[in-house]
Design goal:
By secondary structure, the chain is α+β, with helices and mostly antiparallel strands. The protein has helices spanning 13-66, 206-209; strands spanning 68-69, 74-76, 81-83, 85-87, 91-98, 106-116, 121-131, 134-135, 145-159, 183-190, 199-202. This is Prepilin-type N-terminal cleavage/methylation domain-containing protein.
C-alpha cells in the first residue's frame, strides 16, 4: 500500500477577518471614488445647464432689444407726445417685430417685467399687438411668458447722449419716453449671489428718433 504523506491547512480566523477588513476597505474606497465622480459630474452638468440658460436668456434679450423700433404704442396726454419707450428699474416696454411663428407677426409691445417669486424674483414678458400707434387689447390675452426665475435681483438701466454729444450717466428711469435710449443694460444676480455676465445692448434705431420727436396732435 502507498501512504500519502502531508496534510491540508485551512485559513485561520484572524486571516479571514483581515481579508474581510481589506475587502470592506476596498469597497468603501471604490464607493467613495464613485460618489465623488458622480458629484463632480453632477456639478459639471449643473454648471453647463446654468451657462446654457444664461446664453439663451441673454441672447433673447439682445435680439429683442436690437429689434426695438421707434414705433409709438401710447400717447402721453400731459405732454401730447407719442410714447415709444418706457424704462424703469424693474420694467421695460418698447415695440419690436416678432416672427410669424410667435403670433400674427408685425409690431408688438414687449413688456419685460420683474416680479416677486417669494424666494426671489423672476422676469416675464407680455406681448400685445400695436396698431396705428396704440396697443390693441386682445379678447383672450396670452399670459406673460416666464423668461427666467431663481434670481435675487434684476435691474434695467438706460443711457443716452448728454447735451454735449457725449455718453451720459446710466439712468434707472428713462424719462425721454418719446425716443429710444442708445444703450440698455440688464443686470441679473442668481439667488445664491452669483452675478451673470453684464449685458449691454445698443439699440441701432435709437439715433433715427433721438432729438427729432415731435408733439402728437390729439383731438
Amino acid at each position: 500500500m502507498t501512504r500519502v504523506h502531508g496534510s491540508s491547512r485551512g485559513f485561520t480566523l484572524i486571516e479571514v477577518l483581515i481579508a474581510m477588513v481589506l475587502l470592506v476597505a476596498g469597497l468603501a474606497l471604490a464607493f467613495a471614488t464613485l460618489g465623488a465622480a458622480t458629484r463632480t459630474a453632477a456639478r459639471g452638468e449643473a454648471m453647463a445647464d446654468h451657462s446654457e440658460r444664461m446664453r439663451a436668456v441673454e441672447g433673447f434679450l439682445r435680439t429683442r432689444l436690437t429689434g426695438a423700433r421707434p414705433v409709438p404704442f401710447d400717447i402721453d396726454q400731459t405732454r401730447a407726445i407719442a410714447v415709444r419707450f418706457i424704462g424703469e428699474r424693474e420694467r421695460m416696454r418698447f415695440v419690436a417685430d416678432i416672427p410669424d411663428y410667435l403670433g400674427r407677426g408685425g409690431p408688438y409691445l414687449h413688456d419685460f417685467k420683474v416680479e416677486d417669486a417669494g424666494d426671489g424674483v423672476r422676469m416675464t414678458l407680455a406681448l400685445n399687438m400695436v396698431q396705428a400707434g396704440t396697443t390693441v387689447e386682445e379678447r383672450d390675452p396670452r399670459p406673460p411668458e416666464l423668461l427666467v426665475e431663481g434670481l435675487r435681483e434684476v435691474r434695467f438701466r438706460y443711457r443716452a447722449l448728454d447735451q454735449e454729444g457725449r455718453l451720459g450717466d446710466w439712468l434707472d428711469t428713462w424719462e425721454a419716453t418719446e425716443q429710444l435710449p442708445l444703450l440698455v443694460e440688464v443686470t441679473m444676480i442668481d439667488r445664491n449671489g452669483a452675478a451673470w455676465p453684464p449685458l449691454v445692448v445698443s439699440l441701432p434705431l435709437a439715433p433715427a428718433i433721438s432729438g427729432f420727436a415731435q408733439p402728437v396732435q390729439t383731438q
